[in-house]
Amino acid sequence: MDQDALDKAFMALADPVRRDIVARLSRGDATVNELAEPFEISKQAVSKHIQVLEHAGLVTRSRDAQRRPVHLDAEALERLTAWIDRYRLIAEQRFRLLDELLADPANNTGPAGAAGNGKKN
C-alpha cells in the first residue's frame, strides 16, 4: 500500500463517526439513511463522512434499483491490517527477545550489578 493511500485511510479512520460507519458496514451493506440512524447529525453530514471513506478507498457505493447501498471494501482493510501487522510482529519479536534476556539468570545481575560491584567507594 503506498504512502498516500495509507495517509488517506488513516486520516479517514481518525474520526469516530467514520469508524462507527465502518463498524456498521462490517455487518453488511447499508444506505445513507440506515447509516445515519444512530447519529445525531444530518444525513448530509453522514454523506460527507461516507465521501471521505470513499475517497480513502475504504468503501464503495453501488446502485440497486432505488437504493444506493454503501459497501465496505474488505481488501482495503486487509491491506491496512497487513501494514499494521508487519510492525506489530517486529515489536512482538523485540519483546520476546527482551523477555528471554530478562529470564536468563546469567544476564540478570540485579541492582547491585547494574551499579558496578555493589560496593561503595
Q: What tags apply to this protein structure?
A:
121 residues, mainly alpha, Arc Repressor Mutant, subunit A, 2 domains, elongated
Provide a descriptive summary of the structure in words.
The chain is mainly α. It folds into 2 domains: 3-73, Winged helix-like DNA-binding domain superfamily/Winged helix DNA-binding domain (Arc Repressor Mutant, subunit A), CATH 1.10.10; 76-106. It is built from 6 helices and 2 strands, in the order ααααββαα. The protein starts with a helix and ends in a 7-residue tail after the last helix. The model has no long low-confidence stretch (mean pLDDT 86).
Question: What's the quick description here?
Answer:
This protein has 6 helices and 2 strands, in the order ααααββαα. The protein is mostly helical and 121 residues long. It has a two-stranded antiparallel ribbon.
Question: How do the strands and helices of this protein lay out in sequence?
Answer:
Layout: H1 3-13, H2 16-25, H3 32-36, H4 43-55, E1 59-61, E2 70-72, H5 74-103, H6 110-114
Antiparallel strand pairs: 1-2
Please tell me the total number of domains: 2
Quaternary assembly? single chain
Overall pLDDT metric = 86
Order of helices and strands: HHHHEEHH
What characterizes the major β-sheet? 2 strands, antiparallel
- Kindly report how far apart the N and C termini lie: 58 Å
Strand content: under 5%
- SSE class: mainly alpha
Q: Strand order within the widest sheet? A: 1-2
The CATH topology label of the largest domain is Arc Repressor Mutant, subunit A
